[in-house]
Amino acid sequence: MLALSLASLFRLSSLVVISSIFLGCSFLSGPELMVERYMACPMDSVWNSSLESLKAYPVTMKDKSSGVIETGWRVEYVQSAGYGLLQREGMGDKERSQLTLTMKPLESNVVRLQLAERRQHWGFRGGARIYDWYPVQPSQKEMDQILNKLTQKLEGEGCFVES
What are the residue ranges spanned by the domains of the chain? Predict the structure, then answer.
């Protein structure tokens, strides 16, 4: 009876450790915002307009056959809340964002587009690593700007974009 309960305890503790590892890793990657649009437009037009709309980001990977465009980190300075009793400013408060855009043709001249953003903030954390990048909520405003730019380009070519 004691061996059975020790085995059960071992299995339970293993499950807790493995779950903690997965939860910890997902926390480190940060939240991700994803939006989806459907477009009545040829895939080539969507691809070219997407590349044009992402010019402000450093494109690190583009694979037209799989319909994926990934960007590197783009850094921008932000105004953040002060810290401490005297509300001191942080040293170089900034945020960076990274995008993944996926296009999939569904039917003749119908494309599903998915745009996902990860965002991190550089700032005061305290502890051993006083300043570091840490995950923050993605920017809906940034996503809307990119999608509006893409929509304008495609509608200029006579395409219909569902929003």
Answer: 1-30, 31-162
> Taking the model in full, what pTM does it have?
0.72
Class (C level, CATH) for 31-162 = alpha beta
90-105 per-position pLDDT tens digit: 556 789 999 999 999 9
Give me the phi and psi of 146, to 5 degrees please: -65, -45
Could you tell me whether strands 110-124 and 32-40 are parallel, antiparallel, or unpaired per DSSP bridges?
antiparallel
Return left, alpha or beta for 157; rule: phi > 0 is left, psi -120 to 50 is alpha, else beta: alpha
Q: What angle do CA 94, 97, 103 make, to 5 degrees?
A: 170
Q: Give the per-residue pLDDT at 132.
A: 84
φ, ψ dihedrals at 9, nearest 5°: -65, -40
pLDDT tens, position by position, 135-160: 999 999 999 999 999 999 999 999 99
- With left for phi above 0 and alpha for psi between -120 and 50, is residue 109 left, alpha or beta? left
CA-based nearest residue to 30, from 106, 97, 113: 97
Residue type, 53: S
Secondary structure E strands in the chain: 32-40, 59-63, 68-71, 74-77, 94-107, 110-124, 131-136, 160-162
